[in-house]
Amino acid sequence: MIHVVQAALNGVVKGVEMKIVLRNLSFSYVSASRERKIFENVNFTFGSDRVYSIMGPSGTGKTTLFKLLSNDLEPSEGTILFDDRDSHTLKPQYVRSHIISRIYQDYLLVPYMTAGENILLSREILGTKTSLEEKENAHHLLDLVGIGNLKDTPVRLLSGGEQQRVCIARALASQVPILLADEPTGALDKENTLKIGELLRKVAHERSITVLVATHDPLLAEEVDEQCVIDNFRINSVA
């Protein structure tokens, strides 16, 4: 697997290093009847060249953290910094296009497009013409996640696990410094979970990017550089 990973990475541009700094971060969901606290006075730094697992029971804030980092939500208090840039000063579209790429739990693929076309779609949305090199890299990435033979297959014909791999390859095709993966191995077996864990770690180290993996899977959590848990409204490193 390591040989395959290295071969695919040969065509991928090294990313720009960027750390995430949470400074006195607090967030609550507020309705007319109640306030539900998720984070309180969180101070934590996620560095580049590393993969972090984010664990905790459902409802503790894993998805909320990703929404805060993507500028889908704003902190109730405190600051999120991308290096020295306050996320509050950046438009959500800019963050999603130039800073963060997401691996979604529910895939968000275009069903009538092929696996390869889905990977290249983000470039087309930005109005950028897709180069031959980018097309070749998309195919390399599908090889990397083990489904290179399905590059011309419409994703509606793929299994859940295969669609999840397309989603992973699509996120890896971007040239952004931060990757957020929401349950990236939820539909995969043990063998492929270990392969994806190895892949994410290899990509983080080779491209100098920051990778955060929200997961309930202890097997995947063992494959990262640093394990974190959300508990009592804080983020704590446990390994």
TrEMBL record:
InterPro entries: AAA+_ATPase (IPR003593), ABC_transporter-like_ATP-bd (IPR003439), ABC_transporter-like_CS (IPR017871), ABC_transpr_LolD-like (IPR015854), P-loop_NTPase (IPR027417). PROSITE patterns: ABC_TRANSPORTER_1, ABC_TRANSPORTER_2. Keywords: ATP-binding, Nucleotide-binding. Residues 20-238 form the ABC transporter domain. The keyword ATP-binding applies. It comes from the Bacteria. One of its GO terms (molecular function) is ATP binding. Pfam families: ABC_tran. Belongs to the ABC transporter superfamily. This is ATP-binding cassette domain-containing protein. It comes from Alloscardovia venturai.
